[in-house]
Amino acid sequence: MSALSSVPVESLVRLVTDAVASVHDPEYPDVSIADLGLVESITVSESGDVAAIGLIPTFSGCPALDMIATDVEAAVLALTEVQQCTVEWLPGPVWTNERLTDRARTTLADEFTVVLRRKDGGLRCPICGSDAVVDQSLAGPTRCRSVAWCDSCRNPVEVMR
Amino acid sequence: MSLTPAAREYLLALADDEHMIGARHTNWIGLGPFLEEDLAFCSIAQDELGHAIGLYELLLDDAGTDRTQLDAFALQRAPGDYRSCWLAEIKCLDWSDSLVRHWLYDRAEDLRWKALESCTDPVVAALSLRAQREESFHLAHAEQFLSRLASTDQSARIVASIERLMPIAFGLFDSVATEPDMLAEGFITQSSADIEALWIDAILDDLKRWDLDVDIVAGPGQFNEQRRTVRSDGFDALQADLLKVISLDPIAVW
To answer: How close, in Å, is residue B127 to chain A by CA atoms?
Structure first.
């Protein structure tokens, strides 16, 4: 017997989508992987009990990929309606920081002092609001961040690249 | 299986190059000349290993082999079954050599991935776009470092590294035996010789911009010239190093 086959597939997709979004990035404990733009596809089988999640990495070298995939699988399988779940890191499309939602941008700036570069190339300090932020190193503590420095409040600032 | 044997051989060469250069770059973890550089070089290594994993997974999927065999495939083949070039394999004990190798390698890698951008295999084409984005960061790193060093009293050391490594670097363009079939099949549109010509132009442009005077010469006998089937002298030790942890408990799942 298929589990809860009376639940429409659309509702299941919504449930699975919420479950995937409940997974936070290991590097940013308050930021959902959905808000980071890592979720590319979510499908649920016609029978309603098999979910397939397609994710894309920020950078090929991100060491957190296995951990994220395991977390997603566990979150989806925690739904009683879903019996099977596959999680795949897709070869494309290419992730860019434009995929970040406004919510992710706000949390990253407020809680992690991580900002995005403006279209004009400039950076604004998330601590004091100054534009006197200069690039310091292309490589930061994770693959997706570089390091800058605020000349005004003299704090390090990280940039989602 | 959708990839032809010719295509598999071609992609394996790129994958093995990415694997070996990534592994060699990691030798500098904790030893980089300063903290930021340690992080930067480690980041580049992670990307190269990521590229290798993407290609290895594609090859495993295509052969119908489970992805759990990735480590075995990446690490435990017989040396003659690898297709890496010597530039990626050799041990660079000198920081200047490692930095120069990174530049020579990434200039070529960028062009090699670009040549796969319109590949008939959609997975390869997608991996190409991601790799190119990452290569732009790697090349920016090489530019920032070498352009600065070239104008200091260390420029002679950089030049010596270039002269030492350039002859070996030409082995990057030693094509696998199946390349003519790949071109005939339309899987790729640029030969290794075409990419080599673009690479020489790019290298010469860089040297001119950095005001470094170096002769660009291929060194006969300094790379295997046998369609990538022969390994460099230190390969056995490198493979033994890479297998060290896995050999502690061969049946463990990592």
So the answer is: 6
Residue of B48, B58, B62, B64 whose CA lies nearest to B16: B48
Inter-chain CB proximity A91 and B134 less than 8 Å: no
User: What are the start-end ranges of the H helices in chain B?
Assistant: 5-25, 35-63, 70-75, 86-89, 95-114, 122-149, 155-169, 179-185, 192-209, 235-248
Amino acid, res. B217: V
| b/e burial code for range A70-90 (CB count within 10 A of at least 16 → b) | ebbbebbeebebbeebebebe
Whether the CB-CB separation of A95 and B83 falls below 8 Å is answered with: no
Question: Tokens in use for B174?
Answer: 């030693």
Q: Which residue has the tokens 């046998």?
A: B226
Task: Please state the rounded mean pLDDT for residues B227-249.
Answer: 93
Q: What is the pLDDT of residues B104-163, one digit of tens each?
A: 999 999 999 999 999 999 999 999 999 999 999 999 999 999 999 999 999 999 999 999
Distances (CA, A) of A134 to A113, A119, A141, A158: 14, 15, 17, 11
Q: What is the ipTM of this complex?
A: 0.79
For residues A100 and A96, give the distance between their C-alpha atoms in angstroms, rounded to a whole number. 8
Strand (E) or helix (H) holding A71: helix A65-77
- Whether residue A57 is preceded by a cis peptide bond, meaning omega within 30 degrees of 0, is no
Domains of chain B and CATH, by start: 5-248 (1.20.1260.10)
Contact B126 A139 (CB under 8 A): no
Domains and CATH numbers, chain A: 9-89 (3.30.300.130), 113-160 (no CATH)
By mean pLDDT, which of A142-151, B64-73, B108-117 is the weakest? Answer: A142-151
- A60 and B131 in contact by Cβ < 8 A? yes
- Please enumerate residues of A whose Cβ is less than 8 A from a Cβ of B: 57, 59-63, 90-96, 136-141, 143, 147, 161
Lookup: tokens for A27? 């590097």
